[in-house]
Design a protein that fits this description.
Elements (H helix, E strand, L loop, with lengths): L1 H10 L4 H13 L1 H7 L1 H22 L6 H10 L2 H7 L1
Helix pairs in contact: 1-4, 3-4
Length: 85
């Protein structure tokens, strides 16, 4: 939801309440809804990708910061947790 908020604020304003309810409804049965509505799943991945990029830009004061990018990248690195043990 954090990335969606950034997407909504910095990339493309969308009606927040309607979309938030739609996201919550979709996630209530994510596996089933992903199979039934693959385009919606793709849209959510787009929210996450653009939200993550713009989140780093925004948190870094409107500039690209290598350390901030690395920190944000590690949030999605599920494999690093597996490697530790």
């Amino acid at each position: 939801m954090e990335y969606f908020g950034v997407f909504q604020r910095l990339v493309c304003p969308v009606p927040v309440e309607t979309t938030k309810k739609e996201i919550e409804a979709f996630l209530s049965d994510a596996r089933k809804n992903s199979q039934l509505y693959p385009a919606t799943l793709a849209l959510f991945f787009g929210f996450i990708a653009l939200g993550a990029q713009h989140s780093v830009w925004d948190k870094s004061g409107g500039r690209w910061d290598a350390n901030a990018i690395e920190i944000e990248t590690q949030k999605g690195n599920v494999y690093s947790r597996c490697m530790r043990g």
